[in-house]
Every structure is written in C-alpha cells, then in structure tokens.
Write a structure and sequence with these properties.
Strand order of the largest sheet: 3-2-1-4-11-10-5-6-9-7-8
Low-confidence stretches: none
Shape: globular
Number of strands: 11
Order of helices and strands: HEHEHEHEHEEHEHEHHEHEEH
CATH topology of one domain: Isopropylmalate Dehydrogenase
Mean pLDDT: 92
Radius of gyration: 19 Å
CATH architecture of one domain: 3-Layer(aba) Sandwich
Helix content: 40-55%
Distance between the termini: 42 Å
Length: 311
C-alpha cells in the first residue's frame, strides 16, 4: 500500500547525504528480500553484505534481473547457518545493522538471543512498527506487536525504553508515550491499567527516561484530544502520542493490522533492544515500507555510534 502522505519520505530525507551503514542481510534467497537490500543500497542507505548460499543468491538475482554489482556475498549453506554467520559479522564489527532476508523471523531471532554468540544486551528485545497512517499527523510507533507475547511490568519497562530510544534517534525530543488499555481509569481487575499507572510512576522516578508517559489511556482518548476532553482527561499525551505501548502482543498485532488494512497505513518493522537494530521485512511489505525500515535502522545505528563516541 502506498499512502503518499510524506511521513516516510521525511524519514528518508533525514538519511540522505550521509555515509551508508554496513548491513548483514541473512539469507536473501527470494526476490523481494534480495531486492529490498539492493534497493536500500541504491538509495545510499546501506552497504549490504549478503549472507547465505552464494549460488542461490546469484541465481535469484539473475532470474529477477537484480544487478548485484560488487556486493559482497558471504557463503552459508542454509538459513540457520546464514543467521548465525550474519550475527557473527555484527559481533566482529563488520556490520552495524542486521537485516532479515527470506528466512523465518524466529530463525534469525534465535541467533540474535543465543546466550554466548548472540547480540543480547541487558534489555529485553522488542519489536516496533513504525507506521505512516494517512489519518494521523505524524509517524506513529506501535510496540510490541511481534515478539513479547504477554509482557510483565518489567518487560514493558524495556519495551517502552527501547521505543523511546528509537524515536529519539529519529530526532524527536521527549517523545510522548500513550500506554493503552481498554479504559482510562485504574481497575485492579485489569492488569494493563495497573501496569500503565506503574510505568508512569516509574517514569517520574527516573526508571524510564527521555519521554512523557501517560496511561492508562483507551485508544480513542490516546489518539483524539477531543475524545479525551469529553471524558475530562487532561494530558500532554492525549491526541499527540509518538508511541503507543500496547498491553500484549495480540492487542498490538491486531491494532497494527487494523491500521494497515482499514486505514491504508504503511508499516516498517524493526527489532530493538539488541546490540544493533534489526530490520524485519516481509514479502508483503511494499518497497516504500522496506526502504523506510532501512532508513529508520540507519538512523538508529548512527545514534548508537554517536553514543559510543561520547562515552
């Protein structure tokens, strides 16, 4: 789906004219996966390192009319080996971004979270959808809709901080986080409302940093200032969130897909909380979404690089 609303294009514009980032692409053995990496290279965003069966990669390129030029290929015999080798390239400092090719997401993530050879940090890994919704006035991040099934309060702290750090890397100062529930009042029988209240207090005490949090908020009063006013909610966040923190994976996945299929939103996907940003693409993603995923990952990688330089 192509909305043409310009929000993704502004993200891409932020990445223009800067040095492309070396990116390990795990098992790009299908036309859309390979084209996504090469398209991003053509846009000047990444320098792809293609990791997988070399013969198969070249065969797909030839059949699809994709010009690989002098793109580096690292041979790996199958998808599991490609995931492990791509992660190894990151650990060795040869790449600063990891990108999913045509293997299953759980294959790649298994290599990412491997105890001794993966890319784990002290935080829980989480997923973000960066969404261009035609009816909303800015890019909207939905988290977590793909990895953490039933996150605990402690998990939500990491999920929230991961999303905040990402949005800050995109140039937003003190992003606004709406913590979603079915209602906007605290109800001891609805754990999402208790978690939301705790997260807000944790933010006040410095356990979550860099953002303005409010919750619990129902979806209507999170997105609509008018709906919040009708219910007597006074909030800096209501009507203007940058991030929607969902109660669990099912709620997040349904929300993201509703925005995609009912509101014609484009959605880019990243995994955050690991040592490097991880681009998760789907065969159903538009070229625009794949390029946006790369642009966001590049900005996150640059922010990570700068943070190390200032330490």
């Amino acid at each position: 789906m192509t909305t043409g609303t310009g929000k993704y294009e502004r993200l891409l514009a932020q990445s223009k004219g800067l040095e492309p980032i070396r990116t390990a692409v795990a098992h790009p053995c299908e036309q859309t996966a390979l084209a996504g990496a090469i398209d991003a290279a053509r846009e000047g965003l990444i320098v792809p390192i293609l990791v997988g069966p070399a013969g198969k990669i070249r065969e797909v390129a030839e059949k699809s009319g994709i010009d690989l030029g002098n793109t580096r290929i690292v041979d790996a015999s199958h998808s599991h080996a490609a995931a492990a080798r791509a992660v190894e390239l990151v650990r060795q400092g040869e790449a600063e971004i990891l990108m999913k090719g045509s293997l299953h997401s759980d294959e790649l993530l298994a290599a990412v979270v491997a105890k001794d050879t993966g890319l784990r940090t002290g935080r829980r890994v989480s997923h973000v959808f960066i969404m261009d919704v035609p009816t909303y006035h800015k890019v909207l991040v939905v988290t977590d809709a793909a990895i953490n099934i039933a996150p605990t309060l402690e998990d939500k702290v990491d999920i929230c901080q991961n999303a905040i750090d990402l949005v800050v890397s995109l140039g937003k100062t003190r992003p606004k986080v709406a913590i979603l529930a079915a209602v906007e009042t605290i109800n001891s029988k609805m754990i999402a409302t208790i978690d939301a209240a705790a997260l807000c207090k944790m933010s006040e005490r410095g356990q979550i940093t860099g953002a303005i949090l409010d919750g619990p908020l129902a979806f209507d009063n999170a997105i609509s200032r008018e709906a919040a006013a009708i219910k007597g909610i006074t909030s800096e966040v209501a009507g203007d969130p940058d991030i929607l923190l969902v109660p669990d994976l099912e709620a997040g996945n349904i929300l993201a897909k509703q925005l995609t299929f009912l509101a014609n939103a484009d959605s880019a996907g990243l995994v955050v909380g690991a040592r490097v940003p991880i681009i998760l693409t789907s065969r159903a993603d538009s070229v625009r979404s794949r390029i946006a995923s790369c642009a966001v990952a590049v900005m996150a990688a640059r922010a990570r690089r700068q943070s190390f330089q200032t330490v």
